[in-house]
Every structure is written in C-alpha cells, then in structure tokens.
C-alpha cells in the first residue's frame, strides 16, 4: 500500500502525452489544442473599417463638411471624397481610401446635407486599419493553443473552416457486477441500479472528453478477461469500476494479471478509495476504481484527472488546491488520510454529513474535497484546511 503522494507521482511518471494529430471541422474543435501553427490567409480586418456609427471625412481646416454619400456594413462601393466632404458611415463598414477620419454621430450637428463638428479630430480617428488584428501571412494562433470559443470565433473570422489538432484519448468505461441493472427497469430484490458508468461518463464529458464507450460485464471470468483484452487493445485509457478486490466474484484483478498488464500500484493509503489499481499495457493506461460510487468519483478526480491532463500535455495537471477556513468540526477515525465531500464558498468550507464511500447524495451537493492528512486526527472550527476544487462547480 502506497501513500497518496506516491500514487500521484506514479501516475504522472507513467503517463505520456499522446501527440496524435487529426483534422476536424472548426466548430467541433472546442477545447482541443492546435497541433500546427495557423497562418492567417487574410488581413483582419480585410479593409479599413469604421469603428463607429458616424461620418467618414476627408479632413480640411473647417469644422463643416458636405455630405455626398452613405456606406453601410457590407457595401463594396468606394465613394471618392474631396477635402471638406463626408459620407454617412456605420460600424464595420469599409472606409473609402479618400477618407482619413471618422467622427461619431453624437459629436456632429446635421443640417440637411451639411454637418458641423464640435471640434477637430486627428487623422485616422475611429478607423480600424487593415490588418490591425493580424496581417496576411502572419501567425494567427500558435501550435499548442487551446481552442476556446473565442479562438474558434477568431479563426472563423479569418475564413478558416478546419484545424489540425491533437487527438484526445479514447476511453473505455467498464462496470462489473451481477447485482447491477439499468435505471428505468423494475428493481427486483437484491439488485441495484448501476450508476458508475453514467457518473463517470458525465465527469468525462464535463472535462470535454467525448470519445468514450461503456461496457457492462457480468461476474463471469471469461467474459471479463475477453472484454478487458479488447478494450485495452482499442483504447488509450481504460477505467473499470468494481471487481478489483479479492472476493470470489471479483474477476477484474485476476483477468488483468492474466493479461500481463504492468501493475504500477495497487491500494493507496486513503479513505475512500483504498483498493485503487493502476497499470499499463503498452501505451494504454488502466485504472480499476473501487465499486462504491463516491470512492470511484473521488479517485477519478484525484488520479484519473491527472492522467487525462498528462495525455493532453497540459501544463496544469491537478485540480486546484487551496486553503480554506473550516466552519465544521470533523474527527477522523483511523490513520488513513481522507477526502471529505464539502461545500466551499468565499474562503470557507463546510464538511458535509454522509461521508460513506457508497453515498452519492452528499457528493451531489459538493463542490470541493477536503484533504485530511495522515497526521491530522481532528478538524476544529476556523482551522485552515486544504481543499481540492472540483471542476465546473
């Protein structure tokens, strides 16, 4: 049995970035990372552009100008202005080459075909120059940039429709147990609704990992071994829940051993989630999480999350850890470090009731985990504690 720190270090050490490339339509590239630099195919803006609703001017020494035309956004005609002439213009519209300033409409008085300014304005005032954001042939976004909604909007504005990106890992979720049935079916005596697959699937979706398949296995050794062999061969990451202990019908561990996976560790000194298994088979990472839902989800956030970030070569691989003031009292039983479901708000954290590893009700209310180290036996009110902030809560 190893420590939490040793287990985290082992995950970090044994996971390498995937660095496999693919090309996707830009609208499907959200949260992916560019695998190639993107060079701008156009100037942005592609023409001199008005930054205001107002009047484009050919400047002269007087405050009065004669209106000769109008240009709206999307127009492609180029009125020719002489000094002292102006056109009505709107935000985003092309500024004629013979105009050299734009004055906002609130700063002029209009009298028929004449406008009079309050005061003189400088040359190029309120004109966005061609290529102000990026010029044709320049670097638009560099390799390794995360494609946020803003980045996708920016690239689309350059006329780009697809991007070379790093692939995200393919992931298989495996649940085991004869006692498990699908939600929505009648619940016979002795059965429970299977929740781990939906829980972990949505945890992955929440982190923008969508290449996920779910596999459900009964307590049968041959079926367990065959399914594990297949998903290990076909995926970058395999996450199994349940069946890793040493009971008569816990076949996952036995099957993995026969498949000759390289065990990195089995069992971590922690609560919940002691029977956590981590292994490699060639380039595939394998986690066998505890079957109890709250334990499985805790292990996912503390360990599997790190593996996912390492596969994507992200700089930040752990969830944020901060200090917060406890508004609760908690007394730890035993000497194992613990991860406690909690609610964090504005520098304070409340440790919730119902910390049993099988209970998800408390987890459903939580936005943080309180980490209670081995050498801490009791938390008093106003004690500073370390918390792990859960994603998107």
Automatic annotation (TrEMBL):
It comes from the Bacteria. It comes from Flavivirga algicola. PANTHER family: GEPHYRIN, MOLYBDOPTERIN BIOSYNTHESIS PROTEIN. Its EC number is 2.10.1.1. Its cofactor is Mg(2+). Gene3D superfamilies: MoaB/Mog-like domain (3.40.980.10), MoeA, C-terminal, domain IV (2.40.340.10), Molybdopterin biosynthesis moea protein, domain 2 (3.90.105.10), Molybdopterin biosynthesis moea protein, domain 3 (2.170.190.11). SMART domains: MoCF_biosynth. It is an enzyme of class 2 (transferase). Belongs to the MoeA family. Keywords: Magnesium, Metal-binding, Molybdenum, Molybdenum cofactor biosynthesis, Transferase. This is Molybdopterin molybdenumtransferase.
């Amino acid at each position: 049995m190893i420590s939490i720190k040793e287990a985290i270090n082992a995950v970090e050490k044994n996971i390498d970035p995937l660095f496999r490339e693919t090309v996707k339509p830009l609208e499907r590239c959200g949260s992916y990372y560019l695998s190639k630099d993107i060079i701008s195919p156009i100037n942005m803006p592609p023409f001199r552009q008005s930054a205001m609703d107002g009047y484009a001017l050919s400047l002269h020494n007087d405050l009065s100008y004669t209106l000769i035309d109008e240009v709206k956004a999307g127009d492609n005609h180029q009125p020719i202005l002489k000094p002292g002439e102006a056109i009505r213009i709107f935000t985003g519209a092309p500024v004629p080459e013979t105009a050299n300033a734009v004055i906002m409409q609130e700063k002029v008085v209009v009298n028929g075909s004449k406008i009079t300014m309050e005061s003189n304005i400088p040359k190029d005032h309120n004109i966005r120059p061609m290529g102000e954001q990026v010029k044709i042939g320049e670097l638009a976004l560099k390799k390794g940039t995360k494609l946020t909604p803003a980045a996708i909007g920016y690239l689309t504005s350059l006329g780009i429709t697809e991007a070379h990106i790093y692939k995200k890992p393919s992931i298989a979720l495996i649940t085991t147990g004869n006692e498990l049935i699908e939600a929505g079916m009648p619940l016979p005596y002795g059965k429970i609704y299977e929740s781990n697959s939906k829980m972990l699937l949505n945890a992955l979706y929440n982190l923008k990992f969508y290449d996920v398949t779910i596999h459900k296995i009964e307590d049968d050794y041959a079926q367990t071994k065959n399914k594990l062999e297949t998903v290990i061969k076909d995926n970058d990451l395999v996450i199994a829940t349940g069946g890793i202990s040493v009971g008569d019908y816990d076949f996952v561990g036995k099957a993995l051993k026969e498949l000759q996976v390289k065990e990195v560790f089995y069992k971590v000194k922690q609560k919940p989630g002691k029977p956590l298994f981590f292994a490699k088979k060639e380039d595939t990472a394998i986690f066998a999480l505890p079957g109890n839902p709250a334990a499985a989800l805790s292990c996912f956030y503390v360990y599997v999350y790190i593996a996912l970030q390492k596969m994507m070569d992200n700089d930040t691989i752990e969830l944020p850890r901060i200090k917060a003031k406890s508004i609760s009292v908690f007394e730890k039983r035993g000497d194992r470090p613990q991860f406690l479901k909690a609610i964090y708000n504005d520098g304070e954290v409340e440790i919730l009731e119902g910390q049993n590893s099988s209970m998800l009700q408390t987890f459903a209310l939580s936005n943080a985990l309180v980490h209670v180290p081995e050498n801490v036996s009791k938390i008093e009110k106003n004690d500073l504690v370390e918390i792990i902030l859960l994603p998107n809560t």
